[in-house]
Prior knowledge:
The protein is α+β, with helices and mostly antiparallel strands and 223 residues long. The chain has two domains: 104 residues, no CATH class; 96 residues, no CATH class. Helix content is 36%, strand content 17%. It has five helices and eight strands, in the order ααββββββββααα. Helix 1 crosses helix 3, helix 2 packs across helix 3 and helix 3 packs antiparallel against helix 4.
Amino acid sequence: MSSEVDICNVALGYLGDDATVASLSPPEGSAQADHCARFYPISRDSLLDMHGWSFATRRASLALLAETPPSPWRYAYAQPTDSLDLLAILAPDAQDDYSTGLIQYGSRLASPELGVGNYTPQTFTSEIDGSGAQVIYTNQQNAVLRYVAQVTDPTKFSPLFTEALCWLLASKLAGPVLKGDAGRAASVDCLKMFNMWFGKATVSDSNQQRHKVAQSTTWMANR
């Protein structure tokens, strides 16, 4: 498991810098520590926002707001303060993001959409309201949000995510650490390495999930 300091020191090492950082909060006083304290949070949050990472994905029942949502939305909810990327708005009884059960019409079951399967995720939008707060508008009652959270504990990161983060951070540190043409060239090289490790990390992370899509149609339900 890596700490913030470990990640920063690896990134500096990728740039050929022998200096080691001992503290980011507060920075220990070295130029390297100041640079890391500035660029590490940006790099971490940017990478978290690039993919629906399993270790950062959460579900939360949303808090209904008293304000009247704009048309055509029926409900307004407070957006979680730790959310980075909103993945799906779900019904409270949804088993997954991909399919939903059948609706009871009298004595018969039917798909909510005639003749086709109905997928669980509901339409929504995220906007800033008049008070400056982040608000989610949707037509889903008792909505549940699945989202990528701002995970700040590096011990929760997957190993490949950590490797990609080291290279992304190195690409941002290259300019202030190496400066000039050398810094620009190193930044480009580090971004190439980041792209490679990002691809490996996303493939590995996607393999941690298995989905069984249940498409229900009216003719199947009423057989």
